[in-house]
Amino acid sequence: MKEILGKIARFLKLDRGDMPVFLASLLLALSIWFIHNLALKYTDFVSVQVVAKSSIEGHAELSTNSAEVVARARCIGFSIVNMKLRHSDKVISIHDEDFHHLSGDTYYLTSKELMGFSHELFGEGSVVEYFVTDTVMFRFAPVSHRKVPVVLNGSFEAESGYMLPGGVRLSPDSVTVYGEQSRLSTVGEVFTAKMYKNGITNDGQGVLKLSKIKGLRLSEDEVRYSYTAVRYVDIPSTSDIQIVNKPIDKKLVVVPSSADIRYRCAFPLATDPSTSAMLYVDYEDYLASRSGKCPVRLRVKSSDVIDYTIDPMYVEVFEQ
Questions:
Q1: Beta bridge partners of 298
Q2: Model confidence over 166-220: pLDDT tens digits?
Q3: Do both 25 and 87 map to the same domain?
Q4: Which of 73, 131, 215, 246 is 20 to 30 A from 30, alpha carbon to alpha carbon?
Q5: What CA–CA distance (Å, rounded) separates 67 from 137?
Q6: Using the 8-state DSSP alphabet, how is residue 292 labeled?
Q7: 47 and 30 in one domain?
Q8: Number of domains in the chain
């Protein structure tokens, strides 16, 4: 090598002081040439070892085996070199609906489904001519699971004079948790990330991440939240309490005989709800009650009523 460099130096008429600059320039030129060639596209047979990642209900997230996927593809040189030097498995996220169920815990993909993952398999910009591997099999170990509700971690408060009828809605409102039975038995709900909103006057929606639970997997990573904000007015009223479904031969007394109602109605108010409302006690509730204490119910026709409160909520019923 030293002799070759000496011949090149004599040919180029370089003295000893010029050699470091020459060698640095040569190395730079080789690097540029190497990078340029790796950035070009080449057609070759390429292969990767794949571990499938999915969320098939009742099964582990990762397949217990890896499968080799071989294809003839046109890829960037960097991707080809990376695949040839790579010794670890490549984890590919695959939608549940892309799998075919063979039997038991075994699922498979055909070349048709694999075509949709060509970029994940062989790199961005790759174009697969055809797959040598026609079918790949994956086994997902069964795991215990249970469905639990999603709980909002935080609060949403409306501005004074506004309310959120129905509260904050979460979608989905429950998720499936996967893992060892001993861990699952301690989980009764899954919490969202913390969020606090005050002074709400308009409808809103968004996305909340779910808090992860160590050693367990969730079927969803996030949920959508939404709420409706409505401006309201308070309408106070007092009404006598009637008894419905009472046999004709029965004489009953309600104590107290009236109750206060506070309506919350959408603004602007179209009609006074108290004109079409009726407070009552159901005779069936009286029969089911051992103490004679019955809930007071409201029947109202007005569509403007968003919410209401009754005071008292329970009254006593006596036979005469």
A1: 279
A2: 899 999 999 999 888 888 888 999 999 999 999 999 999 999 999 998 888 888 8
A3: no
A4: 73
A5: 7
A6: S
A7: no
A8: 4
- Residue whose token pair is 């460099």: 5
Q: Which residues span the domain enclosing 124?
A: 42-139
Same domain, yes or no: 264 and 314: yes
**Nearest residue to 225 (alpha-carbon basis) of 147, 165, 173:** 173
DSSP state of 57: T
Return the percentage of the chain with pLDDT > 90, whole number: 43
Q: How far apart are CA 209 and CA 193, in angstroms?
A: 6
Pair (252, 311) in one structural domain: yes
Question: pTM above 0.85?
Answer: no
Among residues 108, 139, 170, which one ends one of the domains? Answer: 139
Last residue of a domain, one of 228, 261, 295: 228
Q: Two tokens at 289?
A: 């009650």
Helix residue ranges, H only, the chain: 2-11, 19-38, 77-85, 111-114, 118-122, 181-184, 283-288
Both 238 and 315 in a single domain? yes
Half-sphere exposure of 161 (CA within 13 A, CB side): 4
Mean pLDDT of 89-111: 90
pLDDT tier at 236, thresholds 50, 70, 90: very high
316 to 15, 252, 298: CA distances (angstroms): 115, 10, 16
Same domain, yes or no: 170 and 184: yes
Q: Are residues 54 and 23 in the same domain?
A: no
Q: What is the residue-wise DSSP string for 196-250?
A: EEEEE-S-EEEEEEBPP-TT-EES-SEEEEEE--EEEEEEEEEEEEEEES--TT-
